[in-house]
Design goal:
about 240 residues; nine-stranded mixed β-sheet; single chain
């Protein structure tokens, strides 16, 4: 397994992304250092187990063999199924746990919350995801998504959250937080028209800070990534404790 601390501004792999001429992706850089990854998984994403958006920084998991890739994919799938069924606590204890730090617009009312919906591609904009209620018409074929959050600190116009995702849908955190009227600060795709942006913020304030995973040898490993300097500076400007 490889664990990467992904910097902001890099695409993970080129599938469905508009890349500039000569722009390298995470997988390009990995293949330069680990050419054997071409033998893992399918082309374009190779050993990448999950993805982060271009303007999201933090922890990324990469499998170095086909066996470990299959193991991690099954683990992600098993945890999602256990959460949906609310049954197998042992699977949850041993399974994947991903936590993010996000700064969102406005004052989030409750200290803790869960967003549980379906998510599917937006008809109005194919780049975006859209929230659907669990039993609403047009929800057929959409995928269940569960996001939990807790408030870390409140500012005058923003709230700092720790976000834990229990499913891994594309744009899940960004889409879910926007759906409760608290889009991520600096998110140009899911933010609202004329949304305020903290001074100096040039990207969405979303960082993958923590990963717990079971390895193929049954060890449980935890990985942590501090906020990068650009996001630390934003919080200092806001007056974080």
């Amino acid at each position: 397994v490889l664990i990467i601390d992904k910097p902001v501004g890099l695409v993970v792999f080129p599938e469905g992304e508009n890349l500039k001429s000569g722009e390298k992706t995470i997988i390009d850089l990995l293949l330069e250092k680990y050419p054997e990854l071409k033998n893992v998984g399918k082309p374009l994403r190779y050993g990448i187990v999950h993805r982060l958006d271009k303007d999201t920084s933090g922890i990324l998991l990469v499998a170095k063999t086909n066996e470990s890739l299959i193991f991690f994919q099954k683990q992600f799938s098993a945890v999602a199924k256990a959460l949906a069924d609310k049954k197998n606590s042992q699977t949850l204890e041993k399974g994947v746990e991903k936590r993010y730090i996000a700064l969102v617009e406005g004052n989030v009312k409750n200290d803790y919350g869960t967003i549980h919906t379906l998510i599917g591609r937006a008809q109005s904009d194919k780049r975006k995801q859209k929230v659907y209620l669990l039993n609403e018409p047009m929800s057929e074929g959409k995928r269940e998504a569960i996001t939990k959050y807790k408030v870390l600190q409140r500012f005058e116009d923003y709230t700092l959250l720790e976000v834990k995702i229990e499913t891994g849908r594309r744009h899940q955190i960004r889409c879910h937080l926007s759906s409760i009227h608290h889009p991520i600060a600096g998110d140009k795709m899911y933010g609202f028209k004329n949304s305020p942006v903290p001074k100096g913020l040039t990207r969405q304030f979303l960082h993958a800070a923590y990963l717990k995973i079971q390895l193929p040898d049954s060890q449980i490993k935890e990985f942590k990534s501090d906020l990068p300097e650009d996001l630390k500076q934003i919080l200092e400007n806001l007056g974080i404790n």
